[in-house]
Design a protein that fits this description.
Elements (H helix, E strand, L loop, with lengths): L3 E9 L6 E10 L2 E6 L8 E4 L4 E4 L1 E6 L4 H6 L13 H10 L2 E6 L4 H11 L7 E9 L10 E2 L4 H14 L3 E4 L5 H14 L3 E3 L7 H7 L1 E4 L4 H4 L9 H13 L3 E3 L2 H11 L3 H5 L9 H4 L7 H7 L2 H24 L2 E3 L13 H12 L5 H7 L2 H6 L17 E4 L13 E6 L2 E4 H18 L13 H5 L16
Parallel strand pairs: 1-4, 1-5, 6-7, 7-8, 8-9, 8-10, 10-11, 11-12, 12-13, 13-14
Antiparallel strand pairs: 1-2, 2-3, 5-15, 15-16, 16-17
Helix pairs in contact: 2-17, 4-5, 8-13, 9-13, 14-15
Length: 474
Amino acid sequence: MSGIVFLNGNVLSMENDEILSSTGVRIEKGWISEVGSLTASEGEAVVDCTNRWIMPGLSDMHVHLATMPWIEAFNPDKTIDPGSLFYDLLLFQFIANGITSIKIRAGEGDSLRLRDEIAAGQRLGPHMTVDSPMFDGEPPLQLACFVSPEGPDQAKEMVRSCSREGYDQIKIYSGLSRDCFDAVIEESRELGLSCHGHVPYEVGLRHAVESGLRSIGHVSDLFHHRMPDLSYDEDRIQEFADLIVSHGVWVDTTLVINKHWERIAAGDAELLAARPEMAYVHPGWRVHLAPESALMKAMTADPEAKVRLRDLYRDTAKAARVLNRAGARLVAGTDAVNPTVIEGFSLHDELQLLVEDAGLSEYEALVASTQQAAAVLGESDRRGSIAVGKVADLVILAGNPLSDITNTRRIEGVVVAGRYLSRADIEVRMNAIENFYSENFEDLTNYTAPEFPETLRSLGFRQDSMTTEFEEDS
């Protein structure tokens, strides 16, 4: 078979907001080779896309893959055996939701290995860009994906170490001191690495942007960096938005995590736990949304903190509206790994919030998950739109996303690096994941990691987990 051709579709290239009706897309060897009025060639697989919409694969540009450091941080009730959280099952949730590219916002060794295996075609998963461990201050969070330089010289050496280890970009966190921040920016520039992340408290947004911070990790950083004063000041937000636009800085949206915190503060944690997509989440992760869990108690114990959580979402959505109106480069991200933010599914929530609460048009929201996502990675020549010569990452939808943003959820097929998975292919794998979780985790207080079932292995999933050696490609 020479390739695959998608015929008679409504193509939304994302190079503009025009929909090309009765249009085909041809894929050869993982790349888009032709777009236009096409007919099938001999030996070519054909997918009829009549009454379907074809657009570039989506991107989630703010992900923390659930590797060991995050399990340690978000598992206070000890309900997850790390040996039972299998990477392939996490990665497939992105593919099943039309997400063909993700950015890991705080990396470690397993993330680098997964990135490289996906790039080599040895593992099915979204294209991964992996940030360095987070550069933080004292006292640092005690996680393996955080580093805390004691001074500028050590900060520079840590940047050099991250470069040697193969991280794609450098991640900044809130507690980094100003002198260490300046050192990280300087050394990263020397090595050709860009810096992304939070606005450190000691640094402030203006100095961070003017010094060369390439993207800001959350819309809420526009006021969050001024803690403990989280009051919303419209004039100051507008000033910051203009500054960000003038320096061409990208901003991750991450509205969905703030929305979930607002709902938790309102007593809706059980409703979050009851979402249908929770069936695809490790049961040991789900229990953290129960009212009696340590995590929920910590988030709801202080009445004043609950008010702050409620206000944080309101103000974040308002700030996103100001940024978009000013012409800022918004990038869709979810902050996945937080227990309420489900890998893959939550990006559709994010896009919906951008339209409904932040005032973006459907097209603008899609730009944030396609064009701008590719641009912030420096990959606009390879990804982010449907055009000849670009990587064949596509999602096929049953409805027009420009008329209703929720149509991004109506996925009929996904192409990732040229590999096509139909709706049926996706469903059989997601059903197998759901069955695995429902059949093996009845007692979360006393269990060992279950045997990896043949049903999952026969579908191409590997047994790699946090406590196992990576399997050799077979």
